Amino acid sequence: MTEKDMIEKSVEINRIMSDVLQQHEKENKRLWLGFIAQTIYNLVITIILLWAASHMQETMNEAVLNSLNSVAELGVTQTTTTQTVEGDSATINNVEGEQYNDNSSKNGGES
Predict the structure, then answer these.
(1) What is the pLDDT along the chain (111 residues), one digit of tens a residue?
(2) What is the spatial distance between Cα 46 and Cα 52, in angstroms, rounded to a whole number?
(3) What is the 3-state composition of the chain as percent helix, strand, coil, each rounded to the nearest 5?
(4) Vertex 94, ends 92 and 99: CA angle to 5°?
(5) Separation CA 66–CA 62 (nearest Å)
C-alpha cells in the first residue's frame, strides 16, 4: 500500500465519519424537538387540569351558597302548644299516629 492509497483511505474514512456525525446530529435535533414538544404538551395538560379543578371548586362554592340562600329564604315558623296535666299519673303523648297507654288495646274496624 502506497502513501497515496493510505491518504485516499484516510479521506474516505473521514467522509464516512463526517456523514455518521451529521446523521447523529440530525437525530439528536429530532430527539430534542420531541422532548420539547412533549414537555410543552405536559405543561398544557397540567394547566388545563389546574384550571378545571379551580373552576369546579368555584362552581361547587356557588352551588353551596345558592343552596344556603334558598334555605335562608324559606320562612321559619314557630308553633307553641300548651298542654295541661292533672294528677300524678297523667301522661302526655305527642307522637302522631296510633298510640296507646298501658291498658289500651286496638279494636280493628275491619274483620
Answers:
(1) 799 899 999 999 999 999 999 999 999 999 999 999 999 999 999 999 999 988 898 889 889 998 888 887 776 677 777 777 666 766 665 666 565 555 655 665 554
(2) 10
(3) 65, 0, 35
(4) 85
(5) 6
d(CA 2, CA 17): 23
Residue with cell 320562612: 75
pTM: predicted TM-score of the whole model, two decimal places: 0.44
C-alpha cell at 83: 298542654
Question: Is 82:88 a contact under the CB 8 Å cutoff?
Answer: no
77, 103, 78, 79: which is closest to 89 by C-alpha?
A: 103
